[in-house]
Amino acid sequence: MSRVLKLQEKLQKIPFGQKIFSKLVARNAPYFQSISPYIIELKPHSCSISMKKRKKVLNHLKTVHAIAMCNLCELTGGLCLEASIPKTHRWIPMGMKVSYLKKAKTNLIGTCHLPKIDWENTRKVVCHVEVTDIDNVIVMEAHIDMKISLKK
Question: Residue 35, SS3?
């Protein structure tokens, strides 16, 4: 079990544990704090994270800013991969292709599901992240290329 999953398991046993876990994960890469993420679900090969529509993430149209949604995607895909990758391997994002499909007018949820991966023969994983609004409409999609390597 990965370090991040062990921490989540430990914190889920206390009141507000998932909220504390979400804040600790966001503090690990401080820029993620800008979206105030809440980790809904994290398990190997699956991650869902929400962010609220609030003033600090809005653009001039009063919709959620594209870069705030990119942050949600990178956090969701990265955390999904972190919960899935063996302890012998590491990852780093190499690039991200995004498609903005609809205006993001509500709270949002980013979701990533990874297929089974042959870690010994894989050097790149593409994390597909969908961002949906409260009506379950996909407002954004991201494909994040992650470089996989052995830890030295």
Answer: helix
The angle that helices 3-11 and 66-84 make with each other, rounded to 10 degrees, is: 100
- pLDDT tens-digit profile of 2-55? 899 999 999 999 999 999 999 999 998 889 999 999 999 999 999 999 999 999
Cα angle value 43/115/33 (rounded, 5°):
45
At 30 the three-state DSSP class reads helix
Task: Give the E-state strand segments of the chain in sequence order.
Answer: 38-43, 46-51, 89-100, 108-113, 124-132, 138-150
Instruction: Quickly list DSSP for 38-75.
Output: EEEEEETTEEEEEE---GGGB-TTSSB-HHHHHHHHHH
Q: Given pLDDT bands bounded at 50, 70 and 90, which one contains residue 152? A: confident
Task: Please tell me the pTM assigned to this model.
Answer: 0.95
Q: Which domains does the chain have, with CATH numbers?
A: 3-150 (3.10.129.10)
